C-alpha cells in the first residue's frame, strides 16, 4: 500500500509539472502583452480573515524599492490547498554604471525597474490569472513584485559614487522584501499544501532559481514541488562578486554561484539538495531579444540588440540546454520563438508573464 501511494503522489507531481509547461506554452501563444498595456490596479491591504478568491496587498515593514520607497506584494487565497509563488521581472544592476541607470524618466536605456511597472494588475495576468481554462486559477497565489535590480536576492544597501562625483545609494532589498512578504503571507495560508509551484520570468526567473531552495524550506511537508524558470539566461563571470558585494545577498545564495551561469548553478544546487522531491522546468526563446541586449552589455559594453548578438545567444542557449540535461536528469525544457523581429531575427522575451 505504501509503494502504491508513493507512485500515486509522484504521478500527480509529474502531472502538475506537465500541466504547468502546457499552460506556459498556451500563454506564450495567446497572452503575451507588453507592460505598457497594463493598467495599475490597487488591491486593498490584507485584513484578518481575507476572502477566498480576492486579491490583497501586503505591506511588510521595512520592505523597500531600490529608491528607498515602500514595497508591497500581492496575495490571493485559493479554494484549493495548493500554492503558486510567482516572481516578477524587470532587469538587473551589476555594477556602478548600471546602478546609475534605472528605468526612470529622463534616463535612456535603463537597466532595471525601481517601481512595480504594470502595477498590481500584473498579479491577475498569465499563469496566476483566473481564466476559466487556467488549472491554477483556484490555487493560493503569492506574487513578488520587483523593483530592486538584484534578481530578488539582495539584502543590503549599496553606496557608490556617480559619474558626476556625487554619492548615491540603492537599496538592493529583494531578498529582504521577499522574506518579509512570505512571513506575512504564511499567517493566512496552510504551510502544508498538496502542491507547490515556484515560478517567474526574466529577472523573476533568476529569482525563482536563486530562492526556490529557501522557499521550499518554509513548506517542509510538501512533496509535490515544481520550479519553473522562464527566460533567464545571462552569462557573467562576476555573478558571485556582484551578489556578494553589490546586492549583499545571503551567503548561502552567493556561495552557490561558482560559474558564469547563475541559473544553472542555482538549479543544479537545488536538484542536489532535493533530488526527486523537486521537478525543474526551464523555457526560453531561441534568440531572446531582451536577454541578447543585456548579454551584449555584459560581453562588450554594448547595450543593444543585433542579429549577431542573437546568434551568440542562440549558441549560449544550446550549451545551457545541454548542461541542464546532463546535470539535472529529467529536467523539462521548452524552447520557443514567439514574435520575431524581421531585421534582427530576435525572438520574444518571456511567455508566462
UniProtKB/TrEMBL annotation:
<dbReference type="InterPro" id="IPR004963">
    <property type="entry name" value="PAE/NOTUM"/>
</dbReference>
<dbReference type="GO" id="GO:0016787">
    <property type="term" value="F:hydrolase activity"/>
</dbReference>
<dbReference type="Pfam" id="PF03283">
    <property type="entry name" value="PAE"/>
</dbReference>
<dbReference type="InterPro" id="IPR029058">
    <property type="entry name" value="AB_hydrolase_fold"/>
</dbReference>
<keyword id="KW-0378">Hydrolase</keyword>
<protein>
    <submittedName>
        <fullName>Pectin acetylesterase-family hydrolase</fullName>
    </submittedName>
</protein>
Amino acid at each position: 500500500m505504501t509503494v502504491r501511494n508513493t507512485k500515486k503522489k509522484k504521478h500527480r507531481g509529474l502531472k502538475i509539472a506537465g500541466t504547468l509547461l502546457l499552460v506556459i506554452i498556451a500563454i506564450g501563444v495567446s497572452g503575451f502583452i507588453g507592460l505598457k498595456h497594463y493598467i495599475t490596479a490597487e488591491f486593498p491591504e490584507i485584513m484578518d480573515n481575507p476572502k477566498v478568491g480576492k486579491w490583497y496587498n501586503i505591506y511588510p515593514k521595512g520592505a523597500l524599492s531600490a529608491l528607498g520607497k515602500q514595497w508591497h506584494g500581492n496575495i490571493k487565497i485559493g479554494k484549493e490547498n495548493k500554492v503558486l509563488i510567482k516572481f516578477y521581472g524587470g532587469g538587473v544592476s551589476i555594477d556602478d554604471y548600471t546602478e546609475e541607470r534605472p528605468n526612470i524618466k529622463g534616463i535612456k536605456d535603463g537597466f532595471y525597474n525601481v517601481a512595480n511597472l504594470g502595477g498590481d494588475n500584473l498579479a491577475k495576468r498569465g499563469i496566476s490569472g483566473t481564466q476559466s481554462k487556467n488549472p491554477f486559477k483556484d490555487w493560493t497565489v503569492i506574487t513578488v513584485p520587483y523593483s530592486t535590480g538584484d534578481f530578488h536576492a539582495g539584502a543590503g544597501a549599496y553606496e557608490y559614487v556617480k559619474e558626476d562625483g556625487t554619492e548615491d545609494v540603492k537599496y538592493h532589498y529583494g531578498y529582504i522584501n521577499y522574506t518579509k512578504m512570505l512571513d506575512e503571507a504564511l499567517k493566512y495560508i496552510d504551510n502544508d499544501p498538496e502542491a507547490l509551484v515556484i515560478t517567474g520570468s526574466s529577472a523573476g526567473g533568476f529569482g525563482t532559481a536563486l530562492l526556490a531552495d529557501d522557499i521550499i524550506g518554509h513548506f517542509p511537508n510538501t512533496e509535490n514541488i515544481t520550479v519553473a524558470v522562464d527566460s533567464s539566461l545571462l552569462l557573467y563571470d562576476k555573478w558571485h562578486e556582484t551578489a556578494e558585494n553589490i546586492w549583499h545577498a545571503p551567503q548561502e545564495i552567493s556561495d552557490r554561484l561558482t560559474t558564469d551561469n547563475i541559473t544553472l548553478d542555482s538549479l543544479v544546487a537545488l536538484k542536489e539538495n532535493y533530488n526527486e522531491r523537486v521537478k525543474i522546468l526551464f523555457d526560453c526563446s531561441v534568440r531572446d531579444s531582451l536577454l541578447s541586449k543585456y548579454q551584449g552589455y555584459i560581453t562588450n559594453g554594448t547595450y543593444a540588440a543585433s542579429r549577431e548578438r542573437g546568434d551568440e545567444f542562440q549558441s549560449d542557449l544550446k550549451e545551457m540546454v545541454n548542461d541542464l540535461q546532463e546535470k539535472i536528469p529529467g529536467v523539462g525544457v521548452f524552447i520557443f520563438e514567439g514574435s520575431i523581429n524581421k531585421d534582427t531575427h530576435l525572438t520574444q522575451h518571456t511567455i508566462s508573464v
